[in-house]
Amino acid sequence: MYRLTKSALVVTALAVFSTVALAQTWKPGEDTVGLAASNEKDNQKKLALLKEWEQKFPESEMKGQRTLMTAQALLGIVTSAYGKTTPPELLDAAEKAGKQLTDNLDEYFSAANKPAAVADPQWAEAKKTFSLQAHVSLGWAYYAQKKDALAEEEFKKVLAIDPNQAQVSYWLGSAIIRQKDVKKYSDALYSIARSLAVTGPTALPPAAAGPAETYLKKAYSGYHGDETDLDKLKAAVASGPLPPADFHIKSVEEIQKEQFANEDEFNKAHPDIAQWRLIRSALKGDQADTAFAGMKDSQIPDPTVGMFKAKIVAVNDKEIVVNVDNAGGDGTLRFDKAVNSKAVNVGDAIEFKGVIVAYTKEPYMLTMTIDDPKESVKGLPDNAFSGAAATKKAPAVRKAAPKKKK
């Protein structure tokens, strides 16, 4: 796991706060709760004591220090979850603390709360450090919970503060890809390429750079069709941490459309994609449920087509998600044995035929069962499954696959 480096997350602003001791004069009874809050090591308990202190003594002479102690406790909670994926309650607490901290950062670091002994430049640097730590850790909490749209927002805020956070660029690209919005894939590929271009103390460590390079090549090829112009993408990331507004990498679908004069010509050259699009159009239309009822339990593609060509997008237990006509994944192949994720690689090309069993309209996904992997899937390695893949008994009657109307 990448560590928050000193240049990215300098020693916390405790260095600032520790220069100012709590006042030695208290309002009657204030010292009990004030010192208890100051001495408490558990950040959740500290927050509760600080709140009690504020409620009992709202006009304390030390309310500025108290506010900073609140910010520090919140930061301690959100950073405690950094790099972890469990338990859920830890990530949930980090999310809540991080949100409270980032939403109120200007208030916590207002001029009124600045200790007199702290110079303005030091105060501004403390705020920047706090902000960086908070957004990185909050972004991670979202990312670990697969709240990818929220993670994307936080990681962009990090890069606005420090544009050379390589790991954050990588996570940003991954969070965008996991949203399966193909329109944003250009931005995702830019961010992943950017993560490899950063040098210095915030660069990806060697152990992470190799896998990141492999992932970039597979993701780029899966979206673009091959590695053509990948070098241009790597050169483009020098312009900044985020792509320009007009940045775009052509998808393989866009390239294919440009290669053919009309739809009929394309369909003749790619009958499998033509049939896939016909099914998709029906299942995304106004009569989708009726269309699905007519397709369910039918084997696709039509025997005259043979098999669909696809690339692997993800492996999940007994399923392989594939890209037939959408780089984000638009088909799920369901097996009756667990898929060996160490043997089946994202980005690998396969061919398949299957039986329609389910679909989702938005985002579009067609789910098919595979009766016999050896017969119905080409391109998987011999050790693709955890044990011999059992053959499922085929339905007694198979419906014909949908055919394009003439």
Report what the structure shows.
The chain has 2 domains: 14-239, Tetratricopeptide repeat domain (Serine Threonine Protein Phosphatase 5, Tetratricopeptide repeat); 270-378, Nucleic acid-binding proteins (OB fold (Dihydrolipoamide Acetyltransferase, E2P), Beta Barrel), CATH 2.40.50. It has helices at 14-17, 30-39, 43-56, 63-79, 88-103, 105-108, 120-144, 148-161, 166-178, 185-197, 206-224, 230-236, 252-259, 263-269, 271-283, 288-295, 373-376, and strands at residues 299-300, 308-316, 319-323, 331-334, 349-352, 354-360, 365-369, 377-378. It has 406 residues and is α+β, with helices and mostly antiparallel strands. The radius of gyration is 27 Å and the shape is elongated. Helix content is 48%, strand content 9%.
